Amino acid sequence: MIIIFNSHATKDNVQELIADIHAKGLKTNLSEGDNTTIVGVIGDTTKLDIDNLKSADYIADVKRVSEPYKKANRKMHPENSYIKVTDKVTIGEGIFNVIAGPCSVETEEQIIEVAQDVKKSGATLLRGGAFKPRTSPYSFQGLAGEGLKLLLEAKKATGLPIVTEIMNLVHLDMFNDVDVIQVGARNMQNFDLLKELGKCNKPILLKRGLANTIEEWLMSAEYIMAGGNENIILCERGIRTFETATRNTLDIAAVPMLKHKTHLPVIIDPSHATGISWMVPQLAKTAVAAGADGIMVEVHNDPPKAWCDGAQSLNPKQFDDLMTDLKRRVEFEGKKFYI
Amino acid sequence: MIIIFNSHATKDNVQELIADIHAKGLKTNLSEGDNTTIVGVIGDTTKLDIDNLKSADYIADVKRVSEPYKKANRKMHPENSYIKVTDKVTIGEGIFNVIAGPCSVETEEQIIEVAQDVKKSGATLLRGGAFKPRTSPYSFQGLAGEGLKLLLEAKKATGLPIVTEIMNLVHLDMFNDVDVIQVGARNMQNFDLLKELGKCNKPILLKRGLANTIEEWLMSAEYIMAGGNENIILCERGIRTFETATRNTLDIAAVPMLKHKTHLPVIIDPSHATGISWMVPQLAKTAVAAGADGIMVEVHNDPPKAWCDGAQSLNPKQFDDLMTDLKRRVEFEGKKFYI
Amino acid sequence: MIIIFNSHATKDNVQELIADIHAKGLKTNLSEGDNTTIVGVIGDTTKLDIDNLKSADYIADVKRVSEPYKKANRKMHPENSYIKVTDKVTIGEGIFNVIAGPCSVETEEQIIEVAQDVKKSGATLLRGGAFKPRTSPYSFQGLAGEGLKLLLEAKKATGLPIVTEIMNLVHLDMFNDVDVIQVGARNMQNFDLLKELGKCNKPILLKRGLANTIEEWLMSAEYIMAGGNENIILCERGIRTFETATRNTLDIAAVPMLKHKTHLPVIIDPSHATGISWMVPQLAKTAVAAGADGIMVEVHNDPPKAWCDGAQSLNPKQFDDLMTDLKRRVEFEGKKFYI
Amino acid sequence: MIIIFNSHATKDNVQELIADIHAKGLKTNLSEGDNTTIVGVIGDTTKLDIDNLKSADYIADVKRVSEPYKKANRKMHPENSYIKVTDKVTIGEGIFNVIAGPCSVETEEQIIEVAQDVKKSGATLLRGGAFKPRTSPYSFQGLAGEGLKLLLEAKKATGLPIVTEIMNLVHLDMFNDVDVIQVGARNMQNFDLLKELGKCNKPILLKRGLANTIEEWLMSAEYIMAGGNENIILCERGIRTFETATRNTLDIAAVPMLKHKTHLPVIIDPSHATGISWMVPQLAKTAVAAGADGIMVEVHNDPPKAWCDGAQSLNPKQFDDLMTDLKRRVEFEGKKFYI
After folding, report:
1. Whose C-alpha in A30, C85, C207, D73 is 20 to 30 A from the C-alpha of D166?
2. Dist. CA C10–CA C21, nearest whole Å
3. Chains with ≥3 Cβ pairs under 8 A against B?
């Protein structure tokens, strides 16, 4: 349920109503925008008398929110959310951020070299996997803690904030210097992981599951937000369908659909979406046109020799060419590459 | 199998080889581009001795084509195909065409009014359904022959060439003045219909089936081409997936994938892809960025009163706004709205 | 809407009400069962006053039928439908029929030999394709009219009624001696074909489309029934999903779901469902346990040499072993192999 | 790679070869069946000289195993695996086990009552959720540790071994008295969880993910087995498809496919597969006919009042009727309800 206040409502009006609602055992979500103040109510809203509320002169309207996600719902929070990663990097509507880096951290030389290359080309964040989700137990599982250290070396060397995936809650301590924690597609409904990440306040990059609906995805965001952490960036990485020509099927319509339903930023991962490097640039362009707030691209200094996902990685030259093109496109959309 | 000729090969070299191949019971496909002459061979290519062919001094190379589609294959026909609809309207790479019009032809007033509106906004072809594929036998089935007549009235009134769907071969005679014949998604594998359309030489707009792979789609194009009609425009209209937030899931990656595999033009139908009118403009923009050769959009003068698909139709004002925006985008891509 | 009459209602009560309803421009569907008489109403039922109807003393109840399919709806027709194929062969609840035969009719010797083998093993109908739906225009398209003739030869030789697929309305005349006309998966939404088949009264075997929902499937049956032909047998042949280990995914739950929603008989095609011959017997067994009214199985005298679908065909020995096992199972379910 | 020994090979022959292989840094999997001894080799098998191996007189054959799963592969382990749960309960080919119980443990009274009911009807294991995977953070999350205690009370009261889901590794200690640990569909690719479960030796019930292929499923089993725990029972619970009439689509063909590819037992969960209680009995019957080694069914004493999944739960009477029918069916298949 959302309660929309009149423009003349005072801060006291708002606070008193919130206190009343809490007294009834419900939770509230306060959204103070430029134009409107909205109190979202979460819980058994049958306890509230809609007519009674509407009759208050400082209340403009009261509406039931039928979607199961509340904190993530744009109705509760009409203003776009901006996720501050560092003083220099913010992710959200109007700014186009590019996260780039290799599938896995392999060696110190590799990760620093790629970091320097992508930074030069205009990437604003560095990605790299230390803990890798591999379908086979016999595949390279990532350098784990050592991988995180190397990522931090690359961060020191370039100043790029880092995004990396967490696979196991027991590793959470090791992520203190990680700027954005990624929840992989296969963990989108690892509810205990989401609850735990709800307790920290680091930005979370939440990838959509292989075959999860937009509603389920927003409910996973809701898990994290319900825990207290509202810093979520959604990442569309392709969904599983019958088509086998590409690794997944990029659901480009998810971008405008999410912009409509939620206030959280949305980016696209064209590398996992297709699985084919030559297609990555074209899909990155469609991401800009679709209104996405950024992309996450796999870049490796020598893709044929990559320890994983080489087939979908761009080399530094290809990435640089793409960035040159994306800059014109981002400008064309009236957005900025940097805040 | 494709046989690539050396630049110094003469027309006689080419013709003699073609004759030899025919004598063995195989078919050929001659592709004379600016730079290269290629003869594609279709049939039991085990009858040909690759080494023998390669040894001829006028032959540069011989490669087996593993894809089951041949005539539709870019390897056989490296140059982009241009489908000439009228003296003024050609569909293909570098030109962005917009097909617009209502889901169904309803009345003379409606179709002429919409035709005038969309023409004014820059559409280059008019669509309208006379024979409607409805899931229910109790739904409006279209005005049939009467609908075709009204479409032709609109064509006379505006000069816009028309695109309309054929549901039944027995109606083919009625389509003489139709400029582009549409094969609907549900008829993409109506093989007898495809064979018959292969015998005429009108441009065919071939929609992808609800759950057909890109390969099956190109094989359906192959059916028409094998019949002798190479004038095909492919139309991506969304595929069926588990996601129910949109009517279908637009497979935007199909555009670059098709540009890679085939020489045939590709357009997008953002109306059927989403089923939601407010999403149509955003997806039309991604179509431009994806490299599509055009879009087909449903436009109705009064969507809430449309006899079908009102929920996904734009009104003339919305269409006009979209066209204003698309023009800048098409220019940005270095393409033209008109040949 | 369904109007349920009281047990004391007279034939006059029923006929008068039907006449009134027709006068309002609506259609009716009379279902006189052992226990209840139901009149189903199709059309704009807002024209009828439910309260008024309910107040009549000979009417027990009036319910709106929300499903878009009416004639196919079990609410309109609570009794199971029995499709009479010949004096000896009827398809429906309580009887388990086995349709068997090769994917394609190849030669007179092949079709007669297979027909004799499957008959000996207990098949009640013979299948064989004369017009084949092939994804590729270069694949064997079937013997067409010649194939139909050979099928009829096999029918004469064995007495087995025949089931064969129609691909094109222009061939309908050639199907006069065909006992059951099959509509293939790729033609399930070829609405013009369905309308035409609604005008004849031959039994129609309606295969489910590759990615069509149960509701769409029943609406396709509704097309045929609305035309006047109520003799439909539904055939589940696997649906398209992300899993590639089998050719399709057999939707076994479709059987009980359909038995719940419709009065039409339901059979399973385990050959196309899996595409793998060794899996066919196991799935045929699940078909019996699921409550299906029969199966359709591909049998070829020499599968490795079959002109199509050899990989999923059983040889006569395998078919005979399967039939021996199925007989016990059908008995176990309290059903019969023959009427 | 699998190395198949001749019938006259000695234990020394086998052990020496295994030692040689280990010395090269590879792992082995010894399978000593009634008829054949097979050593499976896992790792970079290019280090082994196939011809050299084949030349040894005590080796019958050497084959490369192309599937990425090895330990789970029937080629490596031709004999069926039997998972011993307790002295009285073993799960595997030839025995049909029924796991039954409520979706969630709610109260002591509820869980004990249901346990007693299902035991009386012939269930061999009790299920009940203490940690519930809920799509919404606002839904009942389960009684957690308290729920496990109540389950153990029910185990004491009835002697039924218990199956319950683990959501988080930090809870593993609490599972000491749990007989079978369940990995839910949404955690099928929670690789860190699988690795950890590979270190204990409790039987693991591994549910198939919503949209995971059979190969990915076996690779998840491989994760657990590679860790050292080979006690895995696979559970098919329906996959996600375009069809919305049922909650999921039961992939019944997965049963024979898995029996072909792996030696691990396979059961079916008809409750989650359909989401509709009246369909559960029919699908349980098809499970028996498909060759499954058991089913897992949700049973609640008062489904309309269940705290979750009431719509798909059977009440005790319905469960009892189903069990009566299943017993005849299991006997018919020549299997046993008890070891």
Report:
1. D73
2. 17
3. A, C, D
For residue B23, the domain's CATH number is 3.30.70.1140
Give the CA count within 13 Å in the CB-facing half-sphere of D323: 23
Which of chain C's residues have a Cβ under 8 Å away from the Cβ of A244?
244
CATH number, residue B96: 3.20.20.70
In a domain, residue D74? The reply is: no
> Quick check: A230 and A84 in contact, CB under 8 A?
no
State the total domains in chain A.
2
Q: Are strands D2-5 and D59-63 parallel, antiparallel or unpaired?
A: antiparallel
Q: Are residues D58 and D89 in the same domain?
A: no
Q: What is the dihedral of CA A18, A21, A26, A29, to 10 degrees?
A: -20
Sheet strand arrangement including D2-5: D27-32, D37-42, D2-5, D59-63
Residue B151 near residue B176 (C-beta atoms within 8 A): no
Angle at which helix A280-290 crosses helix A316-332, to 10 degrees, equals 20
Domain membership flag for residue B71? no
* C244 touching chain A per CB within 8 A: yes
Same domain, yes or no: B124 and B245: yes
Statement to judge: residues A24 and A145 lie in one domain: no
Domain that holds residue A311: 83-337
Note whether B137 contacts C222, CB cutoff 8 Å.
Answer: yes
Query: Cα separations (Å) of A164 from A179, A240, C156?
Result: 8, 23, 72
Beta A266-268 vs A232-236: how paired, if at all?
A: parallel
Indicate whether D279 and D199 sit together in one domain. Answer: yes
* Global confidence as pTM: 0.92
Residue pair D218/D250 in contact (Cβ under 8 Å)? The answer is no
C-alpha distance from C19 to closest chain B C-alpha (Å) = 21
Are both C91 and C149 inside the same structural domain? yes
Please tell me the distance in Å from B252's CA to the nearest CA on chain D.
Answer: 19
C249/C289 same-domain check:
yes
Query: For residue A69, is it within any domain?
Result: no
Q: Does one domain contain both B39 and B185?
A: no
Model ipTM over 0.95: no
Query: Could you read off the pLDDT tens digit of each residue along chain D, which spans 339 residues?
Result: 999 998 889 999 999 999 999 999 998 988 887 777 999 898 888 888 888 888 888 999 998 888 999 999 999 899 999 999 999 999 999 999 999 999 999 999 999 999 999 999 999 999 999 999 989 998 889 999 999 999 999 999 999 999 999 999 999 999 999 999 999 999 999 999 999 999 999 999 999 999 999 999 999 999 999 999 999 999 999 999 999 999 999 999 999 999 999 999 999 999 999 999 999 999 999 999 999 999 999 999 999 889 888 899 999 999 999 999 999 999 999 999 876
Read off φ and ψ for residue A110, nearest 5 degrees: -60, -50
Residues 212-241 of chain D whose Cβ lies under 8 A from any Cβ of chain B:
240-241
For residues B137 and B228, state if they share a domain: yes
Question: Is residue C76 a part of any domain in this protein?
Answer: no
d(CA C232, CA B332): 55
The one-character DSSP state at A57 is T
